[in-house]
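We emphasize that the prediction below concerns an isolated chain of 362 residues; any contacts that depend on oligomerization or on bound cofactors are therefore not represented. The input was used exactly as deposited, without trimming of termini.
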Amino acid sequence: MSRLRVAVNTGGGDAPGLNAVIRAVVLSSLNRGWEVWGIRRGYGGLMGTDELVQLTRESVRGITHLGGTILGTTNRGSPFAYPVRQPDGSIITVDRSDELIEAFRSRGFDALIAIGGDGSLHMANELAKKGLPVVGVPKTIDNDLAATQVTFGFHTAVQTASDALDKLHSTAESHERVMVVEVMGRHAGWIALFAGVSATADVILIPEIPFRMESVCDKIRSREAEGRPFSIVVVAEGARPVDGEASFIREAEPGAAGRLGGMAERVSGEIARCTGKETRSLVLGHLQRGGSPLAYDRLISLRFGAAAVRCVADGLFGTMVALDPPDIRAVPLQEAVERIKTVPLDADVMLTARDLGISFGD
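Result of the prediction step, given as a token string:
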């Protein structure tokens, strides 16, 4: 095979395991005699807002265990809706995708490996439709991409949330308080469910099940009656009551989704009002995105990165690598992004939670 020039980028929110994917892409490519270039900050290195960097063995030495991404990332600057500030200070969005593709080709790249979640892979899919030779790698701690059994970063985020819940148990019990903890999960409650069950939460509120505050408070009162005067409530950021909407803390910026947040505080206030219990809320936020990836996430990241390079070698463009146990396979990008993977209400973990007496507020 001729000497290929491969570009790689990371987009969207960071996740534990990004650097491991990059390392696998670089080493797998170099071992084939190819060149690898990193596009800084999403597509910024091709759009004139950042740079391109050649990646060598030295570039990726010792990064498998590191959180974050050596290439930087962003959830703004979509080439299809690029924010441009006008002379009067207002911001409009313009389609710069053709410009991006021209920049990609003018630099002699033969393939792009795009590492990202739902939003980033939607962009990759649209670029593929325009003829860009792209292979996607699924990255999101929300675990909401339907074409793969799991996304890298998810298990580490669950561990981080579980560790926090473990620590909160002791202070909740000592003060006989209700602790309401908000975790990430815009459209899917995988983190809330897995962490909540693992850390023995009493109530778990997820986007898939609109909740009733009366049911949440009934659970807390029943624990009080049983001599358990404290409770742990886990709330996914995208959870919503049956008679309301999800909680946004600010409007969307140009080219970005609206920012969810504040549901834990709302639920905490309602619990205090209707039960009289001392209640505190805590938002784990970006703590879930940081830190060293677990061994599982390191391994799946390395497998994804190496598999993406094999897809390039085989000319399987317009695809995403996906875990289909026990193997990694290539699936069409269109299939990968056409729907969100939400928690099935009859999933075994859901049934386990209900058997354990955990309330979902329904």
